[in-house]
Amino acid sequence: MGLEIRNGRPYYYRKVRRDGKVTSEYVGSGTTAEYAALLDERDYYDREEQRQQDRQQREADRTADLELLNLERTLNELFTAVAVASGYHKVKRQWRKKRQK
Fold first, then answer.
1. CB within 8 Å of 25: residues ≥ 6 apart
2. Residue 4: which of 16, 19, 15 has the closest Cα?
3. pLDDT in tens, 59-79
4. 27, 36 in Cβ contact below 8 A?
5. Spatial separation of the C-alpha atoms in residues 53 and 57, rounded to whole Å
6. pLDDT of the residue at 26
7. Which terminus in the chain has less CB density within 10 A, N or C?
């Protein structure tokens, strides 16, 4: 972060992006600077932890989606096999019973 020591005294500058440029924003000096730096650092780690949890949730969702997709394919294959064995066929994506002659 932007905690700087000048002449033995801490000064805190927060980096802020404005109009696509990074600028330094003066926050305070002395004890105020140290507390502000600690709070910003804690916020940074909290956001990083949240990002990690979000990544893990997305990965779990992706895994569940793949399992469901595989289950759907298996069920479609099973249904097709049962339908064909029962005398059905597909016409324009619709299952129809074969005519008896």
1. 13, 14, 15, 16
2. 15
3. 999 999 999 999 999 999 999
4. yes
5. 6
6. 87
7. C
Q: How many other β-carbons are positioned within 10 Å of the β-carbon of residue 36?
A: 20
CA distance 29 to 37: 10
Residue type at position 96:
R
User: How many whole angstroms separate alpha carbon 16 and alpha carbon 40?
Assistant: 12
Which residue shows structure tokens 């804690």? 42
> For every one of its 101 residues, what pLDDT tens digit does the chain have, with 9 covering 90 and above?
577 888 888 889 888 899 999 988 888 888 888 888 889 899 999 999 999 999 999 999 999 999 999 999 999 999 999 999 999 998 888 989 888 77
What H or E segment, with its residue span, contains residue 66? Answer: helix 31-85
Chain-centroid distance of CA 77 in Å reads 33
